[in-house]
Amino acid sequence: MIKFFLMVNKQGQTRLSKYYEHVEINKRTLLETEVIKSCLSRSNEQCSFIEYKDFKLIYRQYAALFIVVGVNDTENEMAIYEFIHNFVEVLDDYFSRVSELDVSFFSAVNQVFHSTWQRTGWS
Amino acid sequence: MEIIRRKAVLALYKFYLIAPNQVQHIHIKFRKALCDRDVGVMAASLHIYLRMIKENSSAYKDLTGSFVTILKQVVGGKLPIDFNYHSVPAPWLQIQLLRILGLLGKDDQRTSELMYDVLDESLRRAELNHNVTYAILFECVHTVYSIYPKSELLEKAAKCIGKFVLSPKINLKYLGLKALTYVIQQDPTLALQHQMTIIECLDHPDPIIKRETLELLYRITNAQNITVIVQKMLEYLHQSKEEYIIVNLVGKIAELAEKYAPDNAWFIQTMNAVFSVGGDVMHPDIPNNFLRLLAEGFDDETENQQLRLYAVQSYFTLLDVENVFYPQRFLQVMSWVLGEYSYLLDKETPEEVITKLYKLLRSDSISSETKAWIIAAVTKLTPQAHSSNVVERLIQEFTTSLDTCLRQHAFELKHLHENVKFMKGLLPVDKSCEDMVVDASLSFLDGFVAEELSQGAAPYKPHHQRQEEKLSQEKVLSFEPYGLSFSSSGFSGRQSPAGISLGSDISGNSTETGLKETNSLKLEGIKKLWGKEGYLPKKESKTGDETEALPVPQENIIMENVDQIITKNDQSQALTQSKEEKEKQLLASSLFVGLGSESTINLLGKADTLSHKFRRKSKVKETKSGQTTTAQNMTCSSFSSSSNVTYEEDYYLDHLQDRGDKEVKKFSLNSELLDSESLTELPLVEKISNCRLSAPSLFADNNMEVFHPPQSTAASVASEISLAASLLEETTEHMHSDLTEVCNNETISVSSYKIWKDECLLMVWSVFNKSASELKSANLEIAPAENFKITEQPGCCLPVIEAESTKNFQYSVQMEKPFTEGNLSGFINYQVMDTHSVQLEFSVNLSLLDFIRPLKISTEDFGKLWLSFANDVKQNVKMSESQAALPSTLKALQQELRLHVVDIIGNEGLLACQLLPSIPCLLHFRVHGDMLALWFRSSCSTLPDYLLYQCQKVMEGS
């Protein structure tokens, strides 16, 4: 089960966030900063999965942008890892060479996100 | 169009997540979506199926074939090319399907056999070097190890895991470790193959990998490798700062220590480490369990004393260390142990211990809760001490404390201290496990109470009663769960909570009393598992352990050989190996000891029994299982008690007697019984009066013969004998419906009626031969229906039906899954005069109500059951005027729906029923003016909805 999906840049600004379980608004900011902090602390040699509280974070870095997915224990980490890449590929296609600006300023990202989401098997 | 269908299915999925029983009626649509020609729609429906199968896999076994076919098509590349991701066909879809198959095939050989082929193909196809294929492989391995095992597949999966674990890619290594952790319980030898990799991962720079490795080691811990594994865990614990990880690891260490501790010293030291690191974040069960373990002990009393003595000594020295701050919980544990068991010390006197505790008490870093624990310990030690300077100083200091709680404790101590003899009687040494006899009813206050009452004071009302009154005044819905008020009713009477807390304070044994309190609330009937010396059925736990070790002996021998070869190789290489390598080897041998066959254990010279002294965790599990079995027993007994109750039918009997039939004699005995019983059972008068025999002529026939096939549901001899009695007896004992004609022609007439037996619905078809000639090879068959289990009776093919006579065919019907209305159809064929055969078809409607029986339970059981059910449905129903009062509503429900009235409290009523064979459903209702608030709960998700529907019908109808 996917709990949340985040796009956060290195400065800690959230570009896109989707929650699939209720989290209070003020707790979201806290969670997002903590999540990006733990992602930034990781090096390239370390694996892309982090334990965070009682769920797992799966992250991928594209330039200065982190995409982080929070899942519970039953999820297949590698499948999510590849799903992130699939999403980015779709974005890249849609915007023809996507950049962080595109993600921040176009609501179309949401649309793309949802179709990829449903198409590939999560909802 | 496809996209709309897909979105609709996804919307339904969301509905399902929120309220599963609201989409119950469109399950057929889900099946349609699964077979949709568009891949997207089909994929969307998998979400729903994955979810439903997770909850109840047995209901969807028939779909296994479809899932296998779909996966075969996906793997075979039959999907449109745009579903490919990096030339892998629909990877996420494959993963979803594999997951579903894993759930379906679990512990089910027949279903598993269907999927072996496709799993093999998936393992073979997914060989492309891409991340997403690894994800598929991982899922495949998971599925292969979840379903009923097949050796070839297991071999391939193990190879796959090996590839993952050995991969230089860190993400794959992680995946491999995760798979290994999952697999290791079924096949511990796999850990031996990869032991060196595991050792390397244990020192991996990435803490996540380390953590995963520890998780793996946790699964393979046994009595031989416990010390090494726990040491590794503690090392990790000291490095990590995150609270969640600490809580998690500390719990695991405590669990392992209790299970496999090699000796007392190690156990106490490990628990000390757990308490000092876990401190105040750990789960409160850990210190509680630890103290219980110390107090209740094991079989061997000297062993117990040694453990306690060691604990006391260790805490005594720990308190000596200056300038160390221990977590509050640890200090509480220490003070309890010192208070209880300081008498075991030889050299140190109680005075010394009291002095230490007093010093602790005065330190600033201690919370007032801990201070209360310490004072309790001092109180326990005071009667043992000879001089009491320190105690007096303590009393002096704390009787003026600003903290009320401490001040109270100090005053208690002060007054007890004034009467040392009494104090010794109150606080006996080493009696923490024995109940103190306390006058819980506080009868010595009776005079005081009477005096107050005579002066006009209001009588005492228990808490739940006060609450009830308050609620009824406010006229609002009670949103509180039932358990609260019911559990508090356990304390009703005059046993006020104050009495309990007083008792616990005096004995100074608050954890113990606390535990007993919870026992009395929830764990009824399991107390006997624990005796004074500890766990009573201890042998069982040991045998359980042996069987655990049994399943892998053959493989183990092979593995051991392999292992020996490996170690030989290692020895030959040892010359070239660096010192570091050797250390790793050493670590490996200490970690993976005991994973091989039994012989290795024996070689090590450690008796298996010795290592299991601290088998706390398993005990807890067993008590839990005991609890569930008692719960089952409870429902069983309530079930059987309800089956003792029969639906009497005085009216019908009278009717028969009036007829002055020959049969009367037979019933006279019965009717006596019935009369006496009908007094106790609220009779279902109205219903019964409806049920009259509409075709008495059938029974008046002297020639009547009744056919009785043996009933296969209750195949005991006794039931057969009882069945051998006449049908009429059966119909009088149980409620039955009118006899209605279902079909007829010029020669025969078929009528049917239902007998609502306690354990099933009995359908009886009476075939009456109207013609003057006999009918040959008459045969009645009932078509199998989806929702029912119809027990076919042998001998339903009757050779002959004589002229103008009746034959009866009985079928017992069980419902397989709940529904509102169902249809049972069948046909009868017979031959007339050896010439042609005639076939007649008929059908009968069955409703859910035919399968509802009252469930006789007590209010207390109701409360317990209520809390245990997850599915609930609430609805407000407007009552018709005739029902405006509670009793009449109740009566209607009882009569029409066959519900059992458990209790009536004020304007609320509790009703219980069960759906055959034994799905209970509880109903709570509350009257507000002309509105009736119905609240159903059941273990079955659909039952409440159906019952609600029936209730509404009843309400509207009358």
From TrEMBL, chain A:
The gene is AP4S1. GO terms for biological process: intracellular protein transport. This is AP complex subunit sigma. Component of the adaptor protein complex 4 (AP-4). Adaptor protein complexes are vesicle coat components involved both in vesicle formation and cargo selection. They control the vesicular transport of proteins in different trafficking pathways. AP-4 forms a non clathrin-associated coat on vesicles departing the trans-Golgi network (TGN) and may be involved in the targeting of proteins from the trans-Golgi network (TGN) to the endosomal-lysosomal system. Gene3D superfamilies: 3.30.450.60. It is found in: Endomembrane system. Belongs to the adaptor complexes small subunit family. The keyword Kinase does not apply. It comes from Neophocaena asiaeorientalis asiaeorientalis. Its main location: membrane. One of its GO terms (cellular component) is cytoplasm. Adaptor protein complex 4 (AP-4) is a heterotetramer composed of two large adaptins (epsilon-type subunit AP4E1 and beta-type subunit AP4B1), a medium adaptin (mu-type subunit AP4M1) and a small adaptin (sigma-type AP4S1). Pfam families: Clat_adaptor_s.
UniProtKB/TrEMBL annotation, chain B:
The keyword Cytoplasm does not apply. GO terms for biological process: intracellular protein transport; vesicle-mediated transport. InterPro entries: Adaptor_Complx_Large_Subunit, AP4_complex_esu, AP4E1_C, ARM-like, ARM-type_fold, Clathrin/coatomer_adapt-like_N. It comes from the Eukaryota. It is a peripheral membrane protein. Keywords: Golgi apparatus, Membrane, Protein transport, Transport. Transmembrane segments: none annotated. GO terms for cellular component: AP-4 adaptor complex; endomembrane system. Its main location: membrane. It is found in: Endomembrane system. Residues 853-956 form the AP-4 complex subunit epsilon-1 C-terminal domain. Component of the adaptor protein complex 4 (AP-4). Adaptor protein complexes are vesicle coat components involved both in vesicle formation and cargo selection. They control the vesicular transport of proteins in different trafficking pathways. AP-4 forms a non clathrin-associated coat on vesicles departing the trans-Golgi network (TGN) and may be involved in the targeting of proteins from the trans-Golgi network (TGN) to the endosomal-lysosomal system. Belongs to the adaptor complexes large subunit family. Adaptor protein complex 4 (AP-4) is a heterotetramer composed of two large adaptins, a medium adaptin and a small adaptin. This is AP-4 complex subunit epsilon. The lineage of its organism: Eukaryota, Metazoa, Chordata, Craniata, Vertebrata. The gene is AP4E1.
